[in-house]
Amino acid sequence: MTAPLDDTSILPLELTDVSFAAGGNRLIKDVTLRFEPGLKTVMIGPNGAGKSLFLRLCHGLLQPTQGSIRWQQETGADRHQAMVFQRPVMLRRSVAANIDYALKLRQISRRDRGDIIDRVLHQTGLRRLADQPARVLSIGEQQKLALARAWALEPQVLFLDEPTASLDPAAIHSVEEIIAAIHDAGTRIIMTTHDLGQARRIADEVLFINRGRILEAAPADRFFNAPENDLAQAFLRGELLW
Amino acid sequence: MTDFSDAFAAAIGLVLGLDTSLTEIVGLSLRVSLTAVAIAAFIGLPVGAAIALFRFPGRFFFVVATNALMGMPPVVVGLIVYLLLSRAGPFGVFGLLFTPTAMIVAQVLLVTPIIAALTRQVIEDLWIEYEEQMRSLGAGPGRAVPALLWDGRFTLITAILAGFGRASAEVGAVMIVGGNIDHVTRVMTTSIALEVSKGNLALALGLGMILLVLSASINAAAYLIQHNTKRWHA
Ligand SMILES: Nc1ncnc2c1ncn2[C@@H]1O[C@H](COP(=O)(O)OP(=O)(O)O)[C@@H](O)[C@H]1O
Ligand SMILES: [Mg+2]
Fold it and tell me: Which CATH number does the domain B2-233 belong to among 2.40.10.340, 1.10.3720.10, 3.40.50.150, 3.40.50.10090?
């Protein structure tokens, strides 16, 4: 299913000659890309390649030092995006209250908030934990809560930065299921991972990044069966870790 | 030695019998220190949070001032407030010297820097952890303040308790600006100083015991809060 491409859609997202420098180093280099609605894009690449920086730039947490990042619909673009970070950040309040806080920031009325919270807790299997302090949950549960919180905002685009990096296999499995469900409900997925298996399971489209440069952007089948870039081939063989 | 045990027995008698001069002194102490701490929290929490989150002209001055004031000896604070409130001073017209209000003012000056400095530390640390997530959810530093104060609540309550401990135990400032006037500005610490010098050990000991219990309770509360935090909020 794809997100409706009406005039309220903030997509496509267009990056033109985007670079980001810090401390005299160019960490993201000359990226020109267009994210159309609908697909699941997975960015892979070695540690330190710039995956996290790239997502932060797209999400607006960082400003590019060169080039431009434009949503088709700029006004209100902020409220149609959400991001799930590598390490979940939960407020010191209950599971339900964490979601409630995010909804309140979007000025969702109290009545609607209750229904939304019930729904996303159910969809992420967290309902029995609703009244627990969020910070005592396991990391896997907290990451599911981060997904529930993001889902509650019904974003058109969801960014996820290595969302399963520190999780056990069972938690990885349920996080991947939740990501798929969020996508099925109409949200564009743009994520990073260091886990090739996960990229194969999730990606419709792959971006391969190395040292701040996007070396290959291809449909998943083509990328995994016949990568064109030498370094991408090396990475798939497990020979390019840094 | 008999003097001492007689005094001790008399002191317990005063405390258990709720002796009126004793309860009056304890009541005034609590009223002055609790009011001062409430005002100090009302000023110190937002000021500390603002210093932590915003870059504004004069910020450097605030940081230096809170840190310098935090370690200020009570007698010096008392002296400053005395000069400000004395007949010839800038606020002399209000006639506040040697009133409980003057004592509250002095204790506010003593306690506000402690609360502001600790608040700044707590909020700064939390913001480092929360910033990206908060911005992603649509809350810049301004909108995040209530949530940050709430999430720092356990540490902040401990800071407020520390402020109350300092206020209720200090003698220098209230002695100078209050004058230790019977039935008017006599609080626990100043009475103890006076009664000991007069040789009236019973009242001094009774007040001392109450002060000790108060300070032990504050520390117990602070400990329980820390303990509770670790258990529930990682
Ligand atoms: N704010 C920053 N200032 C300077 N260097 C940074 C900053 N953030 C990240 N880097 C550097 O940029 C590179 C890419 O980082 P990152 O995007 O986190 O990589 P990845 O997520 O692919 O592992 C790394 O070398 C990292 O040290
Ligand atoms: Mg990263």
Answer: 1.10.3720.10
